[in-house]
Amino acid sequence: MSIRSMTVSRPQRWDVRFGADMTDAAVDGLLARPEIAAISADNFPQHVSLRGILLNDARIVAFEPGDIVVREGDYGSSAFLILSGQLRVVLAPGLPGDALGRQPALKRTFLETLSQLWTNRRIPEVRDPQRYRDRHLASRRAKDGAARVFIQDLPAVLDKHRTAVLEAGAIFGELAALGRVPRTATILAEKPSQLLEIRWQGLRELRRYDPGWKRQIDATYRRNALQTHIEADPLFAGLSPVARDAVVTRVKFKTYGSFDWHVSYKQMRGTAEAAQADEPVIAAEGTRPDGIYLVRAGFARVSVPLGSDRRTLSYLGAGDHFGLEETYQAWKSGEPVYLKRSLTALGYVDVLRVPAHVLEKHVFPSLPAPAPLASLERPIADDAFVEWLVDERFINSTQAMLIDLDRCVRCDDCVRACASTHGGNPRFVRHGPVFDHWMVANACMHCRDPVCMIGCPTGAIHRHEAAGVVVINDDTCIGCGTCANSCPYDNIRLVEVADRNGTPLSDESGRAIVKATKCDLCADQPGGPACARACPHDALRRVDANTLVSG
Amino acid sequence: MRATRTNTLIVWITAAALAALGYWHEVTRRGLGDPTFVTGYMLFTLMVFLSLYNGRKKLSMISLGRVSTWLSLHVVAGFVAVVLFVTHAGTLWPQGWADRALALLFYLVTLSGVAGYALQLWLPGRLTRSGPEIIYERIPAEIAGLRDAAEQAVTDAAAQSGFDTLGRYYVQTLSWYFARPRYWLSHVFGGRYAEFWLQRRLATIRRHLSEAERSALGRLAELGAAKTAVDAQHAMQSVLKGWTLIHVPLAAALLTVATWHLILVHVYAR
């Protein structure tokens, strides 16, 4: 029997452009602008040319007055350069949540809770269509087909809130794009504006090959975020302001892995390739540490070689250190000390490196000796659970639904409780990957790194400020499915909605209205998640991955 | 940890309440008083409380405490009810058909409750280790998928080899196994009847098959093993879901008869 195969060209980085209508003429126009002309194209390697970046990693987007360009609290993967027009950045305390499409007040009263007994209908996913008509936010389709949310009464908003003007030539959004942190302010278009939107891949290359952009991005980061980050780290808590400033000015930062890790991970999940996917090395065992690494965002794996593969010992998340013990020992003993473990990026990780000479001068003299690294003599099997959590990326969870299958009697009371508190349709599936007798069910884990929030055109999916959980505002969700496609764990579902009579809602063209739904941790219900409360055997718990690992 | 503390507290309070009840009952009896009326009402109140557990499960949207705490209370209250019943009746098997019906129902509810609780402790661990976890409602689809795969393997083997030996054998014998869940009782009690049956049937036909059909037989063995695992899930999950269909209706009947008993006592006891 002959084996047939189909030949296809190998996928390349720039197969799909960020902006479908970017042309060479548009790039020529951009190259003539002073902000871009200042970049030396000769610094860029041939395979990542400046022209190529502008053509493939950037796009020109137009905004009308009132359009929201970025929203405070959103996660974003791109930065903007204003080409023309004028924008306003809303200063603290910012716009109210409802103006941004956020979920209104959460908790129900006792009577509202009780009324679900008779108001829950036999037909699931019933909505009041009037609610969608009454919403404050309005959305429209821009010329490029993208959804735009706009503030209807822009002058009133500008009068009521403190704002600052952003004009042509200003760059914003780069920290959120490179640092995987939420946008810190809302920015609106005040006049018709044209912006150059650069996705994070292109931005990373600009920072890497152009000293001007690197200087600007790094200076903004040092000014806005680094000081706070260093101050919050217990390692630097005892430093004088002068010493802390010295540390801040000498810290190096770098990102590893792919911002869009969830896309490739989702495709490979559950396959052998997923566990063996390339993980960029941040620090390799056997090398001399040139400082310590602080994880600012994302996750990294700590491992050692074992046989033909690697043994996972632990993982690091935001705020964790790597290499402290070895760097300290090298300073203390004066002898060369080598790293005993490797640190690799899991998907995407944003790392700060504090050079050894800075630590030796400012930190180590007053630092008690760090605890020695855990022994590798423990049985290999002891690490299997952590390895599973890492491979499945459950380390991202703050509220994973963990079911002890040795206690669970499969009564589905949890599913019924969820349905009864969510309009007759459960927001999770009692099924999922199993390790030994532990199952992590398909329920939103309210991730530390909520990739589902990247790209939501209306900001409907967001982290609720008070509750801290990731919720979807049903009123502003347009059912585009971006969040569902982004969730690496398949924990968001799109559902068709109906009116009180069970008639499916549809738009003017007859297409069904769909809404994204997921576990909201019963944020509006008194008493916490109904699933956990309903379990007769305490088999179901909502857990943070860190708690699981620490026992 | 919190649940353990709550359960310990429940057990201690119950033990103290039972000791107080025993003391009061003995004192009243020695004083030539009649404690039956009071113990009867206590028992009836306890029965009403026991029946509230099912209602609590239906009211999951209201914050009425964790259902696991309610279950602990339900189990302990059930135990106390047995003690109270014997104390109240003064015998294990009362006189008269009405009281005997009441006693019979009480014992059946108690037994089904104890059995159900024991099954809930025993079966989940076995379920976890019996193969891939499958949602109960998806089991028919899972079996249908295995059946389709088995029939496809047999059809392909017949087309490839030109023989219909395996096909006929499948229709006569093996299709029975793939039709629906089998060996329910054996799976519930951890027996291996299904494996034994399948191995014997596969071995019987093996020597009569062509090379292509033997390859298909290997595939049938794999599918059969998968079906056995699905059947085990079905058997144990159906027991876990089904026992309440005995316990709850019996409990409802008991409450009805107990209410009737209460009315009769008030009408005729004077």
Query: How many beta strands in the DSSP annotation of chain B?
Result: 0
Low-confidence stretches of chain A: none
Our count of helices of chain B gives: 10
User: Roughly what is the average pLDDT of chain A, rounded to an integer?
Assistant: 85
Task: Give me the count of strands of chain A.
Answer: 24
Helix content of chain B: over 70%
Structural class of chain B, by secondary structure, is: mainly alpha
Q: How many domains make up the coordinates of chain B?
A: 2
Q: Which oligomerization state do the chains in this entry correspond to?
A: heterodimer
Question: What is the N-to-C succession of helices and strands of chain B?
Answer: HHHHHHHHHH
Distance N terminus to C terminus of chain A?
53 Å
Overall shape of chain A: it is: globular
Architecture overview:
The complex is a heterodimer of chains A (551) and B (270). Chain A has 551 residues and is α+β, with helices and mostly antiparallel strands. Chain A has 20 helices and 24 strands. In chain A, the strands form 7 sheets. In chain A, strands 11, 12, 13, 14, 15 and 16 form a 6-stranded antiparallel beta sheet that branches. A 4-stranded antiparallel beta sheet of chain A has the order 1-10-3-8. In chain A, strands 2-9-4-7 form a 4-stranded antiparallel beta sheet, with no helix packed on it. In chain A, strand 18 and strand 19 (438-440) form a beta hairpin. Chain A is globular, with a radius of gyration of 25 Å. Chain A starts with 23 loop residues before the first helix and ends with a helix. In chain A, 41% of the residues are buried. With 270 residues, chain B is mostly helical. Chain B folds into 2 domains: 2-131 and 243-268, no CATH class; 136-240, no CATH class. Chain B is built from 10 helices and no strands. In chain B, helix 1 (2-30) runs parallel beside helix 3 (67-89), helix 4 crosses helix 9 (211-242) and helix 5 runs antiparallel to helix 9. Chain B is elongated, with a radius of gyration of 27 Å. The two termini of chain B are 52 Å apart. Classes of the chains: A alpha+beta (551), B mainly alpha (270). At the A-B interface, helix 4, helix 17 and helix 19 of A face helix 3, helix 4 and helix 9 of B.
